[in-house]
């Protein structure tokens, strides 16, 4: 069912949904950008449509709203362990199509990759999705080539036309709330991107043999191992564990799950002082093949969704889309040397 609304109407809908859900959407945080006097667009809790940034791409993905940078899993004392309480409310996430596809990748890792992750599942079960319509791709996006430019698995879609809001509802329990606040019922089809400026091609014959290519060596100098590409990526799922001991009693504390990055120093440290992939090019190789080869071999589709955020945030202007496009020549290079 589709609805046309004005600003007042959609805010009344938000107010109604807020009784059961916390609303997380891309919003502008003034003067919180990477450079002085610049803004940052990332996910935060909103109450009104005016707070949501619908015209620009967020610098960071929705991931932090679902997987906090630091999440307490449980508390412990000398005698017992208590699992941390889950949020009382569910969450309503406003996602573009690429990020909605990224959510599918997170589900695969946390729910279909062995035992289901208890902490992820209890949050995931209480999430609803609002699809933000995308009429035109941003400069670094390559979602069309990754087949993530269209989505149908949403609860509500949101498009703006001439200052009004058009919503398509697939969650029948919201129909009454939407109908009461709509200007009219109408047919609504979410907008989607059909072409991107940035294009990529993943070789059909890509294998792990490409790891022997010399292309990775150049990133030893270019990459500074800051990890910004991982932390901005909506499909990166690596984390580490931290035990925090309270100062009043060294035997009481909490265990936290903290986001980690395969690109930063210390990620591959092991007991006994060992460490692997010390060269930055080796880390770039690992990340690229995980995104474009390993994940697909296991789940049948690419891990990368083509959002382009890694290209946007890299301080060394390393383009992941360019790396993907070089895999074809790298594959040919390895074949010649065999």
TrEMBL record:
PROSITE patterns: 4FE4S_FER_1, 4FE4S_FER_2
Pfam families xref list: Fer4_22
Domain 4Fe-4S ferredoxin-type: 212-244, 295-323
Entries under InterPro entries matching the protein: 4Fe4S_Fe-S-bd, 4Fe4S_Fe_S_CS, Helical_ferredxn, Sulphite_reductase_A
SUPFAM superfamilies per UniProt: alpha-helical ferredoxin (SSF46548)
The organism's place on the tree of life at top rank: Bacteria
Keyword annotations: Iron, Iron-sulfur, Metal-binding
Name of the molecule in the record: Anaerobic sulfite reductase subunit AsrA
Gene that this sequence comes from: asrA
């Amino acid at each position: 069912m589709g609805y046309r609304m004005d600003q007042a109407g959609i805010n009344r809908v938000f107010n109604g949904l807020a009784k059961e859900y916390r609303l997380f959407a891309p919003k502008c945080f003034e003067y919180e950008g990477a450079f002085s006097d610049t803004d940052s667009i990332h996910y935060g809790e909103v109450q009104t449509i005016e707070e949501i940034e619908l015209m620009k791409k967020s610098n960071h993905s929705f991931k932090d709203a679902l997987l906090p940078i630091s999440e307490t899993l449980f508390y412990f004392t000398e005698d017992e362990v208590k699992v941390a309480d889950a949020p009382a409310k569910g969450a309503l996430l406003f996602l573009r199509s690429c990020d909605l596809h990224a959510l599918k990748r997170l589900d695969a890792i946390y729910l279909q990759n062995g035992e289901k992750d208890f902490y992820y599942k209890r949050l995931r079960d209480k999430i609803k999705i609002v699809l933000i319509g995308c009429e035109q791709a941003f400069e670094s996006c390559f979602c069309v080539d990754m087949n993530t430019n269209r989505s149908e698995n949403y609860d509500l879609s949101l498009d703006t036309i001439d200052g009004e809001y058009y919503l398509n509802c697939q969650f029948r329990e919201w129909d009454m709330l939407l109908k009461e606040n709509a200007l009219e019922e109408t047919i609504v089809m979410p907008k989607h991107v059909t072409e991107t400026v940035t294009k990529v091609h993943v070789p059909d014959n890509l294998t792990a043999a490409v790891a022997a290519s010399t292309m990775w060596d150049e990133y030893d100098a270019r990459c500074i191992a800051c990890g910004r590409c991982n932390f901005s990526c909506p499909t990166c799922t690596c984390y580490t564990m931290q035990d925090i001991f309270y100062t009043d009693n060294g035997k009481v504390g909490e265990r936290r799950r903290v986001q980690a990055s395969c690109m930063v120093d210390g990620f591959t440290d092991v007991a006994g002082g060992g460490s692997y992939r010390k060269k930055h090019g080796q880390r770039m190789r690992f990340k690229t093949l995980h995104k474009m080869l390993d994940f697909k071999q296991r789940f049948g589709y690419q891990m990368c969704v083509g959002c382009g955020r890694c290209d946007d945030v890299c301080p060394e202007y390393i383009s992941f889309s360019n790396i993907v496009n070089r895999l074809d020549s790298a594959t040919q290079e390895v074949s010649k040397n065999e």
